[in-house]
Amino acid sequence: MNLRESMGIALGALRANKLRSFLTLLGTIIGVGSVIFVLSVVEGLNRYVSEKILNAGANVFWIDKYGLITSDEAFQEAQKRPDITIEDADALRLTLRHARMVVAMADATAPVRQRNKVVRGVGIRGRGAGYDVVDDLAIDQGRHLTEFDDRRRQMVCVIGPEIAEELFPGLEAVGRLVRIRDWTFEIVGVTKAKGKLLGESQDRFVAIPIHTFQKYWQARGSFYISIKSVDQPSLPVVEQEARNVMRARHHLPPGRADDFALSTAETFLELYRNITGGVFALMIGVAVISLVVGGIVIMNIMLVSVTERTREIGVRKALGARRRDILTQFLAEASTLSLAGGLVGIGLGVVFALLIGLVSPLPSAVSVPSLFLGLAMSGLVGVFFGSYPAWRASRLDPIEALRYE
Amino acid sequence: MLIAIRDLHRVYQVGTEEVHALNGVSLDIERNEYLAIMGPSGSGKSTLMNIVGCLDTPSAGSYKLMDREIGALSDDELASIRNQEIGFVFQTFNLLPRADALHNVELPLIYAGLKHEERRRRAKETLELVGLGDRMKHRPNELSGGQRQRVAIARALVNGPSIILADEPTGNLDSATGAEIMAAFERIWEQGNTVILVTHEADIAAHARRVVRMRDGRIEGDGPNPGRQGGPPVAAA
């Protein structure tokens, strides 16, 4: 039969009653819209996070006391482990043949002052020499922290450009003094801006030598160690070597579990994927429910339409329409309806995804396959939920249908 | 023989009761006859029309349309015969309200599987034939009753059927318009078509050249219309 005609009838009915059509298609619109929206946001996040995390920590892994801890018991257990020390880092540096850099690290948060200006909540990073390689920091003005700074426990720091801008707007920051908690540090360098990662600025930090950090902030307690391998293939080798060294230093006999954690960017990515996977699954569930509800509403409207147009069906049959002609007509109408809903949903989903990308730190990327997925889904909903009404229409007895008032 | 009906029965099941709508009807109709089936309501004339129009199949007996036994056909085969051989004209016109005159006339051609241009061309020609060449783009609600029935007649004619089957075609029209429609049937018949009117009105049946009277599911009388003389003009020629 004439597909164009059926689609014309469906579109005509849509136009004739805009509010009813909108309400009819609301389920489909929400279903498809949320699928597009979620896929766009997740896609954006994935791309962004993979890029940032994997680039920042390319071929880097970390050794620390806790690792990724997700339960209270595990945390209680992990507290009994020995601390990771700066000496561990020194030992690893001496032993690991394929490591490009081994850096001891620790982090704290403190306000940073200059005269009457205060920047609060600044990340204070204790860093061994070579931190610029593992942290992927480039210097903009001045110099990086050195081995010498570290050995001498110098009161020097390298600051992020955001701190420089806030404390010394428009001025040269290198050579000036800042107070971190109760101690005065000299700024020896300002790094290049790195921008934001998931809405969090990466340019809001102060890096000081790790031994200086140890002296003033953390006489005891655990450090962590960042290790960068020379290249991708050697990463597992270095990981294994590092594990062996740490086990030897902690006198662990074979068969005992590690009492330290070794994590890679992949570990964090995996956690991230688990989290977004959960959100993803939830939203897809919501979308499926909306689509089913939307489909049932479409089925209902189509059943009403079949009843309203019983006479028309009778006339068409009298004029020679076969069962499959009637079936195709009503299927085409139902699909046109739900495709129209799908298109509106895609539009709304894209608009929301772009809006979210603009006003929130969540990056979103509209993925082209998701648009086709949305269209396919709405089309399938139309065909699936339209088939029963269409079947009913096709089975009508022409005599009864012609007599129908 | 165009139509050969032998001992036709049609039984409906209404609740637990069997209703014999047709009770042994035999009827032959030649090509290019102008025939009226008359009878009061309940006489079985509508049932007979439905069977002749291939909308319904007999419970017993034989109905041959152009030597094909209709009772043996499937739903889709019946649809195809309705499309090719039967042109229906209904009392209530039964035009699609949302479609214009041209599209309404095109419908049988759509189901016949004709291409768009061919459909357009033939539908236009047929509408011009019934004098509606200037009303093609009008929807049914923009047309008068007589014009609607002429659209319906064009729709019945457009596929070149063997039989035009008209069920009370003037029932919803005033007498002047009714006369106009009957004149249209007269012309159609003169052009060589077979016309079967189903009516309970004697003055409508009076236009036909042969009148079949029905009562209680049986044929009560069958003969030439005394008021109308002469055979089919085309057949005579």
Largest sheet of chain A: 6 strands, mixed, barrel
Rg for CA atoms of chain A = 32 Å
Multimeric state: heterodimer
Globally, the shape of chain A reads elongated
Write the CATH fold name of chain B.
Answer: Rossmann fold
Spell the H/E element sequence of chain B: EEEHEEHEHHHEHEHEEH
| Number of discrete domains of chain B | 1
Mean pLDDT of chain B: 90
Residue-averaged pLDDT of chain A, rounded? 87
Gross morphology of chain B is globular
Strand order of the largest sheet of chain A: 2-3-10-5-7-6
Low-confidence stretches of chain B: none
Beta-strand fraction estimate of chain A: 15-25%
What is the helix tally of chain A?
A: 14
Walkthrough of the structure:
- The complex is a heterodimer of chains A (405) and B (237).
- Chain A is an alpha+beta fold.
- Chain A has 2 domains: 3-51 and 270-403, no CATH class; 82-259, no CATH class.
- Helices cover 58% and strands 18% of the residues of chain A.
- In chain A, strands 2-3-10-5-7-6 form a 6-stranded mixed barrel.
- The longest helix of chain A is centred in the C-terminal third of the chain and has 44 residues, at 265-308.
- With 237 residues, chain B is α/β, with parallel strands linked by helices.
- Chain B has a single domain (31-55, 74-236), classed as P-loop containing nucleotide triphosphate hydrolases (Rossmann fold), CATH 3.40.50.300.
- In chain B, the strands form 2 sheets. Chain B has a 6-stranded mixed beta sheet, with helices on both faces.
- The longest helix of chain B is centred in the last third of the chain and has 16 residues, at 175-190.
- The chains are: A alpha+beta (405), B alpha/beta (237).
